Amino acid sequence: NAGVTQTPKFQVLKTGQSMTLQCAQDMNHEYMSWYRQDPGMGLRLIHYSVGAGITDQGEVPNGYNVSRSTTEDFPLRLLSAAPSQTSVYFCASSYKWDSEVYFGPGTRLTVT
Amino acid sequence: KQEVTQIPAALSVPEGENLVLNCSFTDSAIYNLQWFRQDPGKGLTSLLLIQSSQREQTSGRLNASLDKSSGRSTLYIAASQPGDSATYLCAVFDSWGKLQFGAGTQVVVTP
Q1: Distances from the Cα of B42 to the Cαs of A74, B10, B36, B87, in angstroms?
Q2: Which chain A residue lies closest to B105 (C-alpha atoms)?
Q3: A109, B53, B84, B89 — which has fewest CB within 10 A?
Q4: Across the interface, do A103 and B43 touch by the CB < 8 Å criterion?
Q5: What single-letter DSSP state applies at residue B63?
Q6: A2 and A59 in contact (C-beta within 8 Å)?
Q7: Does B55 touch chain A (CB under 8 A)?
Q8: Tell me: the pLDDT tens digits for B5-48?
């Protein structure tokens, strides 16, 4: 198993650009989520999904969009990048909502 | 709102000493609690998951306890090694698996 994979590893965007961070898992996990990690703020939940076709907002959803058309994939879209979205983004998955959570390697995003 | 605190923020110990890392949370109505390790520039690696009905979980040199009534969990790492140097994070499970993280304890084990 590859586990949770994320692409790209690094990305630089200009303010106003849009992009999609990719996340995939091959463990047949129902639950997937996106977190951002910032110095002094820790890890915060952006969006999560309890299964294909079902998504909901986390603590900091503004400026981000998600969809879950398959069990394996959970992309995160930045609609119009802002410098405040400079962060490290982690995708995570688990078999059920209360099972052990596995994280991807992260995407380091810089918005100039 | 659930708040998760980890004290100390940083810890330095000589090799061979036991490590004791603390995690406290304000709302005892949690489901599960998970401990992670994060190396610089890397993702989070799962160490232990403690179910809400458990008091303790062990894996090798690692032992984690959970006391929901007092809002505390402790991670013990026996006979520390330089390879244990990392940041250790605890996370409590709110409803629907949303994790609330502590800020972490940065550990340095000196040879």
Answers
A1: 20, 18, 12, 11
A2: A42
A3: B53
A4: yes
A5: E
A6: no
A7: no
A8: 999 999 999 999 999 999 999 988 888 999 999 999 999 999 99
